[in-house]
Amino acid sequence: MTASRRTPGRRPGGPDTRGEILQAARESFADKGFAATSIRAVARQAEVDAALVHHYFDSKEELFIEAMAIPVDPRLIAANIVGGPREETGRRIATAFLGVWESPEGQQRMKALFRSVVSSDEVARMMREGITQMIVQPVSQMLDVPDAQLRVSLVATQLVGVAVVRYLVGLEPVASVDVGVLIDRLAPVLQQYLTG
Amino acid sequence: MTASRRTPGRRPGGPDTRGEILQAARESFADKGFAATSIRAVARQAEVDAALVHHYFDSKEELFIEAMAIPVDPRLIAANIVGGPREETGRRIATAFLGVWESPEGQQRMKALFRSVVSSDEVARMMREGITQMIVQPVSQMLDVPDAQLRVSLVATQLVGVAVVRYLVGLEPVASVDVGVLIDRLAPVLQQYLTG
């Protein structure tokens, strides 16, 4: 946020008002979690009128989905499954996820999402439904193995665990090990879950 | 703490002395960290004799485990590493952790701890330090493999991920799959991290 460089107080919408609202929302979801964040609080943080936030987003839920970029593009995930040698699927998935989380913006989004998921049953339910419908089911259909859905959800456990331990808890040495080394360790495990 | 409302100085055990010692321990672990906290310092903070702390808790490690409501005794984990055939270490670890988390009490403690870790940087720091000193370092010394600490922390990522996805997020089908099936899938992965 560049709030401190602006004249304080409410202001009309500018060229990137929507983007600034989303950034304020990410900060609020990260700091306070989903339940304690309100449209008004986000408006205050973005230094705009609450009506302007409502102009862009129908609800707190929509703001959350947009701010967190939750609609993980299923085509991207699917591309990782089918777009290359089958025996390197695990490596492609590890590389794709860690690539996002290693970027400051991706990491901030991921942390905010986790804090919201563990502090709100409603967000947990939204995430559970979204992941199931947008990732687990379509990817399972592509896999053509027994227990495909179980395999995909086991991949999810390993990815979530790395996110929590490396970025949120900061347990060493996994927290600061080179990302290439980490991918080397994760790739065979994800592969084993998917096709082993 | 209610110390300010009491006569200062050492005092004998009262009806909730154990609870007061745990509260003093939480404050000390939070203020000074795991390494710098001693039984004597906790006794001083709780305004009781060190012998009384020892009456309730055998060691600083036990005090930490109880104070933080850690759902699995880290010493049990260490015992699982060394107490049996090396090639079944992964299975023993998976069985130990899931055994605790499948019980209502163990699951409740795990969820509470996880929510605290994710929402509080201070709790995350305490856990990071405690886990490092009580699990990662001693277990790594027993393993006698290269990168032992990295291996142990990778095991942590997989266990944490299962805890989050199965019990907190409830993503199917991993959320309701039979625990025996889950152990069968996790065991070779943990084994691969440790000795592969």
From TrEMBL, chains A, B:
Tree of life domain: Bacteria
Annotated InterPro entries: Homeodomain-like_sf, HTH-type_TetR-like_transc_reg, HTH_TetR, Tet_transcr_reg_TetR-rel_C_sf, TetR_C_16
HTH tetR-type domain boundaries: 15-75
Residue spans binding DNA: 38-57
Annotated keywords: DNA-binding
TM stretches of this protein: none
Keyword check for DNA-binding: yes
GO molecular function, one term: DNA-binding transcription factor activity
Keyword DNA-binding part of the UniProt annotation: yes
Protein name per its UniProtKB record: TetR/AcrR family transcriptional regulator
Biological classification of the source: Bacteria, Bacillati, Actinomycetota, Actinomycetes, Propionibacteriales
